[in-house]
Amino acid sequence: MGFATQEIVVGSQTVINVTMLEEAEGLDEVVVVGYGVQRKRDLTGAVSSVKMSDAPVQTFSTVSHALAGKAAGLRVTQATAQPGAGATFRIRGQTSINAGNDPLIIIDGFPVSKSSEPESGNAYQAGSQDNVLEMINPNDIESIEILKDASATAIYGSRAGHGVIIVTTKRGKAGVPQISYSGNVAVQAIGANYKMMDAAEYMTVNNRYLLEKWRRDYGQGVYAGYVTAKTPFVAWEDFVTNPSKLYSDAEIASAKTTNWMEEITRPGFQQSHNVSITGGGEKSKYLASINYFDQKGVIKNSNMKRLTANFNGDYDFSQYVKVGYSLNLSRNYYDNVPLGMHENEYSGIIASSLRFEPTIPIRDANGNFSESVVYNQTPNPVSLLEITDNTTKDRVLGSGYLQVEPVKNLFLKATLGFDRRSAKRKTYLPTTTRMGRIKDGVAAQNQSDGMDYLLSMTANYNKTIDKHSFTALLGYEYQRFANEWFSAGSSNFAIDGFLYNKLGAGSNDKEVDSYAGERSLASVFGRINYSYAGKYLITATIRRDGASNFNPDYRWGNFPSVSLAWRFSDEEFMGGIKHILSNGKLRAGYGQTGNSNVGNRTQDLYGPGGKYVFGNTGTIGVRVTSLGNSRITWETTSEWNIGLDLGFLNNRINLTAEYYDRVVSDLLVTNKRLPSYYEITSIAGNIGATQGQGFELTLNTVNIKQDNLVWTSDLTFYTYRDRWKERDPNWIPSVYQSVDDPIRALFSYRSDGLLKPSDPAPAWQKGLLPGQVKVQNLDLYYKDGETVTEDILDSHDMVMIGTGDPKFSLGFNNTLRYKNFDLNIYLYSEFGRWREASYYDNMISAHAGEFNGGLKNQSKNSLNSWTMDNQSATVPNILQSATTSGDYYMKQIWFLRCRNITLGYRLPLPGNIAKSARIYASVNNPFVITNWNGLDPETDYNAPDSGYENAGSYSYPNVRTFSIGLDINF
Amino acid sequence: MKKIFSYAVALAFMSVVMYGCKLVSSEYSDISSDLYPTSERDARDLVTSNVYEAFRNDEYAGAFNVATGFHLLGDMATDFGFCSWGESNWGQLEYANFQNPDGARNPRMNWAPYLPWISKMELTIDRIKGIAMDETLKKRYLAELECGQGFMAFLIWDFYGPIILSDLETLKKPQDEIILPRQTNEQTIAYIESKLKAAAEAGVLAKSYSKENADYGRFTEGLCHTLLLKLYMQTKQWPKAIVEGRELMKPEYSYELVTDAGDAGSAYANVFSSANEGNKETIWAVNCLREYQSHLWYPHVISWGGYKMTRIFFETFESGDDRCAPNVITDGGSSQGVLPLKYDMVNRTSDNCYTDWIVYRYADVITLLAEAIVQQGNAVTQEAIDLLNEVRTRASLPPYQMSSFTNKDDFIDKLLWERAHELWYEGCRRQDLIRNNKYVTTMAQKCVDHGRTDYITALGTNAHLFPLPSSAVNEGRKGGFNYQNPGYGD
Q: Which class in CATH covers the domain with range B40-177+186-253+263-479?
């Protein structure tokens, strides 16, 4: 339910009646665009608007949850389900290679930077944190606009290459003070848990593995003819009894399981309370709101608290002069648990829980944390709960403006603002943990500070003469970004009790480091809107940006745009069908935007190198750390957009369709590869072009509109293709790559089923055993009569399997109102994205292998492994294969998720108690339907593209949230 | 009018404000190449990070680190090497399955990270040449740099064959992105030889350093000659090898075998004891010190239970050999093998050891000399037997007599076993087997002994070199060159 802003001129009235008007949805709705607002009917570019009043935001802990699936062309990816986790926003695909694909996020006119995430100072990672929108209380948001095409974003120039998200917070409204409270409490449960083997299953697989291994080693059964039998022959009985390796049936029957995941998880809990007050008179308006949010995650020790306070005011000094301010204060506090994809000694709590033997109790006979037998580097999962690790982030976003109207309809506005971000992380690994014991306790503190300054001056003029109306904007903007960090740590403490509070007490491995850097950006920009009779609309913008991180000769870039719109439904010849086609507009636009996001890369830089020791003295050397590229310049996005807006039956059915074609040229990368013998083998540079094309559809319908019953639905659909268009002349391809590959192409060998017993191993997979994955030897490459040796499996045999981009995405939002009840159901889905093996397919015996004579724990899928006794299996041989499995586990996945179901009831309270009150119950993520056999199609990491050696998929399990809440306005 | 005036003032004010908005970028934590290097200290620091950093054994960093360093990868790919961390990780090395392009411990892994070091050193020579500083010291730094180039080129050549070399002018223009051919084998050998000779003959390097010397850990003439000896051995230039071996026996180098047991239990164990760091047997060691450099041999063998010596190899020791005594090799009862401790590993904080990591030592030198003498004369000599016996008797084994050997080949066989028992996990075995053309048969036997597929016989002597990574092969293809070593795909 939205309420329109009303400004009531008090004048000579003595009694003011303020009523809440339900928002006039439709064409007169005002949409925020860069440096101003426009009526929806006058838009010429591709802009999606999400009014937060449309969403039951109270149950969302972060803005990103509320946005997922809401706007066609905006892909919101929740990297992990941990409390306070960040999300990635992608507008119209990801066409940059290395310079970031993040949209520019503007909060109340202020382009905000990411706050930094201080390192732990030890080997563990904290997972993900929201670093952009973490200071925003979802309750404070009025609307979020997504500027998609270059004609809409070019006014933001060099930082708008991947679209712009404009967050507008609520401002004070005239009238008697209004106080409102909203609050909710919620419990969370793990949506889907890992299916790992219990103790009995683990023992069973262990026994099967040993038997199969013995058969292989001595060429028994199906393995005869595949291996040279080990000599001298050892009979099975001797093999397993000396020393004893098999679990007996009695042991298996009485096996006690330690369910490590159970030991480290709990029901989650979250609560949120929000109080706001707004009011003021004609000349001064204010708003103050305060929000407290507290979440205890489903993994023990993963907690988050957020406290935000938001103040703003607008004052009219005179008829011509206005001033105002916004101040947004926030503190986010996180308790971190070790997460991340690392394995072995660096295993986080999930990695260790999944791989630790289920047969081992939490503590040994002496009461100490038990150790893994097969791989004792793995930390005891429960011991990791003893780590103290927290992050505190403070952020102050403040700005003030002065607006003057020297002549009628000319508004001069100057804004000064700052965004101060400070974050501090403190960690201590006590001696009860493996890492802590190694060094007798490891403590660290890590602090980072960022400060952005903004100076923005705009002049806005509008004039209407007859049917001609003009708006002109001229502006100047300057921003400076300064960042620094400082870290300190030490180890070897007499007692664990100091935690990180007495670094000086650590007698060893004292480490200290710091950093500082700054850069700046200056811009001039302008925009002209012209409309004739509201039917023919034209918008032209230009922005000229200078970025300090390029050489003076390459520093300035111009980013123009022009867009046209024709409201054909207003033409007289359409008059006859006005009752059917109530709105019709055709739009076309072209624009250019940029990206300079590679840091300072123009100069050769020396930096401290590694340590070495001469005599009895340690020293630190110096070396070239990066090569400068003096010719590096802007990445430029050029984009065409065609849009069609249609409204039928008095706008009960509204349809918006967009098609775009964008080319990103001079692609910026920080890691362009140089020939391998150079001193430094990568350099920042511009490396070619990519192309993205897409289609977006939004359909808003009022399905039922009766006095007591209203049913509305919003459907979004979008699809995009991102490809390479042009490569650097020095690009060094693999043979399986082509110039115009999809950007996120997956290449692999083609698998060819499992080797059948008595079939010979392919010549190119020497040593392949029955039940292991065969791959095809394609030998796609012949050069100048030079034949490729047939029996070698190499990159000539790899092909493109698919892309990691979804084929299309859907969002479907339904709101039903019946008398005082309201019901919201919100679904979204994604189809056709290729993914590599899920944890369930990956963590099986065929991949995990044997460590110190035993197996790490594995997914239950390992029970289905191929063995001589289970030859119909599709899960490969329980023994590890010496060659690749190619695309055997890759699949194209889809999902349909119900994001939210909310049922609300408006309490019929008398007006002298409260103006309005609503209670609701809601469930977030009630179900997901998918062909993905991992935990969750969205929050699961895709292990192989993570870049870590041995990376696994150790994602924080996604959660289901049940909440109840109350909104009340006094 | 007044209004307009005041707006004009405001506009002027704004212009002034805007003028103050300068475009500045600064990275305060890096040093601009305009300002560096200038001083003697800069020269010292550049040498530290462009030479010695390459040869560290610091946790997972450096050419001699015990997880991915050259010697470790080479040792795993010999008859004694084994790791308990799964065949998917280590099987490629353990069973010489070098053809497999995937896998975590891929033999291809060291080409890309170490090749650039030769260029780094070349540019560093150029960068410090112009610095005004003590000329003798500068000459010594330049000699250390040339030794470093020869050393690194030798390591890469040993595993991957011919290297890629560039002249200084090309190195200074990386933006030209020129792809160069690999050198020929002869050119690479000549490069290694010339660099090591230049360093050795500059007359500015110390013959050797004692542990107390503030420069202990830096390269020495002794190291140059040791590397030359190894180069000549691998290229079977026996007369030159003999010259280098005899050079190192000269008293001015003061090398000798450790013969006192100290508190280590045996003289052999005392070579690797923390109390005996910098002993006279050590030719060059990675100098370790808490907070600066520490190696992870202890956890890889003991606390993480990874590295083993195969039982089949362990059983080849003669009884009474100090080099398989429990203080250097512990039998933990694992069917996978025994624990190759070698170091006493008492000087450590839990997993990190601070005992200097010996890279080359005198026992290696004199046994190589013995081999060279016999190969050169094609006959067993008393001098060669004496050299071999020095090492053998130190391990409490009875000395060989002339009558112990039926012929020259028998001597070489016995010498190779002596070296294997003396120098296990010191990066020598792979070279020994290759040099004597026994590598393929030895590894094929290892596969059979362990019930594994024999991949190596298909490769034949091609297996004497590891394959290059596909990134390098692609680069060569782009430049019109076939970079890959014979027998391998990409």
A: mainly alpha
